[in-house]
Write a structure and sequence with these properties.
The protein is an alpha/beta fold. The protein has nine helices and five strands. The protein has a five-stranded parallel sheet with strand order 2-1-3-4-5, sandwiched between helices. Bound molecules: cobalamin.
Length: 222
């Protein structure tokens, strides 16, 4: 079997396991893939991520239900639980691109999108500390100091919690922290990001990685 055919078959099988919500098969396929030479970053970036991106579009167009999205995210998480630690191990002080603190801001418990962004940032070569959901401003600030982070990535999907993003960014400025900020999530927009002084805004996880890479070389908004 040529490498290309082997690769296509692997991608097809992984997609099938995900759409069947078959965690066990997915985990064994991922282990097999790793055993036959696939890189963890390849599997997350080129196989898992496109599936999630597609699901994000489908939920917006009501092609899949919310329950289906949760099952899909839960299935993919089983693969990420194996792959992310391996990606982490492969990054050392010289190859890591930067340190990111990520969380969903205070008052908001939506975390699927943020988890996806965290996984993509890890896959893209960043060391990510995920503070979870409903994270108070002080926790972000403490984590930045503890991890000597380069970037805060904050998520919110709700209009009422936009204020928490604003509060977080105000605190970053008040403390004169030398840190870049990137925000995203349903309730946010490029206009809002500019208004509250975030360094970057992204529409989805891949756009987020692209913007993060640009931030690290000193480029802010487009
Ligand atoms: C799933 C969901 C839930 C789940 C969350 C499960 C979980 N564990 O996360 C549950 C059922 C718990 C839930 C609860 C609520 N929800 Co809800 N929920 C949704 C729904 C349907 C999908 C969100 C989602 O997971 N999308 C899939 C992920 C993968 O995509 P994503 O989150 O958009 O993330 C992508 C991008 O936005 C971006 N991104 C996200 N964060 C970040 C961060 C950074 C740094 C970057 C760069 C990028 C980025 O990248 C991601 C991946 O590509 C949305 C509707 C929608 N279309 O978004 C409503 C929605 C967000 N919910 C809403 C509401 C109102 C609520 C509740 C208040 C309902 C209630 N009355 O109890 C509660 C919230 C309570 C609280 N205090 O937080 C509203 C918000 C409306 C508003 N204007 O404020 C929405 C928009 C539904 C609606 N149309 O009314 N919800």
């Amino acid at each position: 079997m040529t490498i290309r055919v082997q690769r296509e078959e692997f991608i097809r099988n992984v997609n099938e396991a995900i759409s069947d919500w078959d965690k066990e098969r997915l985990v064994s396929l991922v282990m097999e893939g790793l055993g036959s030479g696939f890189m963890p970053i390849e599997i997350t970036g080129q196989v898992l991520l496109p599936v999630l991106q597609k699901a994000c579009r489908e939920i917006d167009s009501h092609d899949i239900s919310f329950a289906e999205l949760l099952l899909l995210a839960d299935t993919i998480k089983a693969a990420l639980d194996i792959l992310i630690p391996k990606i982490r191990e492969s990054l050392n002080e010289t190859t890591v691109k930067g340190r990111v603190i990520i969380g969903t801001v205070k008052g908001d418990i939506h975390e699927l999108g943020k988890n996806l962004v965290a996984a993509v940032f890890e896959s893209g070569g960043y060391r990510v500390t995920d503070l979870g959901k409903d994270v108070p401003t002080d926790d972000f600030i403490r984590a930045v100091e503890k991890e000597k982070a380069d970037v805060i990535a904050a998520s919110t999907l709700m209009t009422p919690t936009l204020i928490s993003i604003e509060e977080l960014l105000k605190e970053v400025r008040a403390r004169k922290l030398k840190i870049k900020t990137i925000i995203g999530g349903w309730a946010t927009s490029p206009e809002f990001a500019r208004k509250v002084g975030a360094d970057a805004w992204a529409d989805d996880a891949l756009d987020g990685l692209f913007k993060l890479d640009r931030l690290m070389v000193g480029q802010n908004h487009d």
